Amino acid sequence: MEGKIAGAVFTFSVEGILSKVASLAAQELSLAWGFKAELKRLHHSLLTIQDFLQAVSDQPQDRVMVVEEWVRKLKAIAHEADDVLDEFEYEVVRRKVELQNHMKKKVLNFFSLSNPFAFRLKMAHKIKNINQSLVDLKGEASFIGLVSKRIDATPRGNTWDRQTNAFVGRDEITVGREDDVLKIVTTLTDSKYNQENLAVMAIVGMGGIGKTTLAKSVYNEDLIHKFFEAKIWVCVSNTFDVNLILLQMLEQLNPTKVPSKDNQNALLIFLNEELKDKRYLLVLDDVWNEDSEKWSNLMECLFKLKSAGGSKIMVTTRSTKVASISEKLLRRHDLGKLSADECWSIMKKKAFPNSSAHIVPQFKTIGREIAKNCGGVPLVAKVRIIIMYI
């Protein structure tokens, strides 16, 4: 049982890191010049390790200790990879913030990572070392009898889209968004929209501003749980495939009823069985599609379901065009930047999870100065505190 739990937990952890690799590989490739190949290799290595994890729970009793040691090593490497990818993602957002706030000279003098060439060399070295550690770990897996098990038959080349889920992770920190949560929850549960079906609200904001984290907070509110009889979370990312969205909806509602993705009629029949006369909330996270025809096709399918009035769709996106295409009845919610104090609060929570921990004055002074230069972006605040420890 212990091995089975470990396998599940670390598969989930690796999936989170895999999502970051996929997202970063699909975007900002100019900054990744010089280590793009290492990023792709890391992506492939993590997929391979994922397959080995599926075999953890099948080991005989006499191998439990050695397998647990292998999992501990994987955990350490996974955390290292997670920190490095956070650092890379931070650098992407930081450069955007510099440009927007005309702070380039000031920040460049403050942070040594600002030299693109030096940054690329540093990242290439770190990711190369992680990749080598994963190669060694794969060799150990074979030596101790772990046999790779394919999770599914999906072609490896189709796994590059970012993935999110509705669960709030231990490291996810929400600060300064209480009013946003209250406004969105109030709108989604407003009785004046109960006669309407599939009103759509879009949450719009720049990358790293916390759209997904905000959507998770709303999704997990007690009032939302009481108001909607069913809740569904779908990460859309770069690929807006109507049938795939329908399939992911069905997988969450009833995993035992999953027809072929290509059979739209069967998908709609099964979805209707699950959602008939029910009021539901559908979250479409990280939407990039700006093709209004694709959006219309999805809405046409959803309108065929005989769900109850008051069902809603919440979309998160960076694109104002996506928001204008998707929004229906409900006013979009533009997510603003945080204050310097709120960024400092995020940094403190990241560095000191124990709220009673004493913070030395020198650290507090430096931290507050760094918080002022975060541009109000939560992701920048989270990762800058990591960089202070590297």
From TrEMBL:
Listed InterPro entries: NB-ARC, P-loop_NTPase, Rx_N
The source's domain of life comes to Eukaryota
Q: From its record, what is one biological process in GO terms?
A: defense response
Locate the NB-ARC domain: which residues?
178-355
Pfam family, any one = NB-ARC
Gene3D superfamilies, sorted: 1.20.5.4130, P-loop containing nucleotide triphosphate hydrolases
The segment(s) forming the Disease resistance N-terminal domain are: 14-102
In its UniProt record, a GO molecular function of this protein is: ATP binding
Provide this UniProt record's keywords sorted from A to Z: ATP-binding, Nucleotide-binding, Plant defense, Repeat
Q: What is this protein called?
A: Disease resistance protein RGA3
Please tell me the species this chain comes from: Malus domestica (Apple)
The top of its lineage is:
Eukaryota, Viridiplantae, Streptophyta, Embryophyta, Tracheophyta
